[in-house]
Amino acid sequence: MVETAVFDTKPYDRDYLAHAPGAEHVAWRFHEFRLSAETAPAAKGAQAVCVFVNDQADRACLEILAALGVKLIALRCAGFNNVDMPAAKSLGLAVVRVPAYSPHAVAEHAVALLHTLNRKIHRAFNRVRELNFSLSGLVGFDLHGKTIGIVGTGKIGRIAAQIFRGFVCEVLAHDPFPVLDWAATHGVRYVDLDALLAASDVISLHVPLLPETRQLLSGQTLARMKPGVFIVNTSRGKLIDTGALIAALKTGYVGGVALDVYEEEEGIFFEDLSGQVLQDDELSLLLNFPNVLITAHQAFLTREALSEIARVTTANILQLETGGPFLAGTTL
Ligand code: NAI
Fold this sequence. Notes:
Layout: E1 2-6, H1 11-18, E2 26-30, E3 48-51, H2 59-67, E4 72-75, H3 85-90, E5 94-96, H4 103-119, H5 121-129, E6 147-151, H6 155-166, E7 170-174, H7 180-186, E8 188-190, H8 193-199, E9 202-205, H9 219-223, E10 229-233, H10 242-251, E11 254-259, H11 281-288, E12 292-294, H12 303-322
Parallel strand pairs: 1-2, 1-3, 3-4, 4-5, 6-7, 6-9, 7-8, 9-10, 10-11, 11-12
C-alpha cells in the first residue's frame, strides 16, 4: 500500500480517486485543506502527496515534505506554477502531473458558455421558474455565419475551432505555431492578432498564461475589437485586464463576456462563500452585468476528465511500490 496524502479535496476528487484502477493499493488520506508549509506536517508517514492548482508547494513546504520522507508530488492537473520545481529537484522529490485529461471538456464548456450567454438561457431558466414566460430582453444572434476568433490553437483551441465550424461559422485563428495542415483540413484561416481582433464577432482564448500572454486583452487590444464583440475565456484569468474589461462593458463596447476563469480567482473559486460578504469589488461588479456569465473554473469538470485525472495520478503513485517508471509525458 502506498500511503498518499491528498490535499484540497472535494467530494468528486475523493470519489474518482477512490475508484481509479489500482486505487485499492493506495492508502488514501483525503484532506479538505490545502497544502502549504503550515499544513505540510499532515503528510507525515505518506510516500506520496497529491495536490491541485491552489496548493502551495513552495520551498519551505517541500523541505518539510522531504524531511518527512515523501518521495512524490502528484499534481492532479496540468499546470505546475504552484510547485517550486528547482526546490523539488534539489530535494530529490519527483513531480508528476496530468498533462492532458480532456481537451473536449474545456472546448465544449467554452461553446456552452457562449450559447448560454448569447441565447440568455440562464436568464430564461430563472424567469420560467417564476412563471414569467415573457421573451422581452432575451434576443440573441445566430452563430451561423458569424466570425469566431480562436486565440491559441493547441489541444483545446483546435477542438473549439472545429465545433464552431460545425455551426458553419467562419473561424479565424492566431498562434505563433500555426498547425497549417489542420487548418486546411478544417477550413480555418490563420491571421495575425490584429486582424483577428478586428474581424471577430466572438473571441475565445485558448492560450496558456505566460509573461507574453499576461493581460493579452487590455484596454488597447479591447479597443481594436469589433463593437459588440463577445469574449470567452476558459484559459486563465490573468489573460484579461479585468479593469479594462469592466470599462468596455460599461460603455457597451463589449457585447458579452463569458468567463470560466478570473484574474483574482484564487481563494474564491472552488469555495462556497454563499454566507459571506464578497470582498472582491471587480468580481462583484462583473456579477452584476446582465451580459456577463461566470462559472468557477469548471470547464474541466466532466466524468471523462475526472476519470482520466484519477487513472493517471493513481498509476503514477503505484510506481512508488513497483519502482517502475512514471507514465510517459507526466514527469516534470
Ligand atoms: P496547449 O499547450 O495544447 O495549447 C496552447 C496553445 O497556445 C499553443 O498552440 C501555443 O502555441 C499557443 N500560444 C502560446 N502563446 C500564444 C500567443 N501569444 N498567442 C496565441 N497563441 C499562443 O494548451 P491547451 O491544452 O489547449 O490549453 C489551453 C489553455 O486552457 C491553458 O492555458 C490551460 O491553462 C487552460 N485550461 C483550462 C481549464 C479549465 O478548467 N478552465 C482546464 C485545462 C486547461
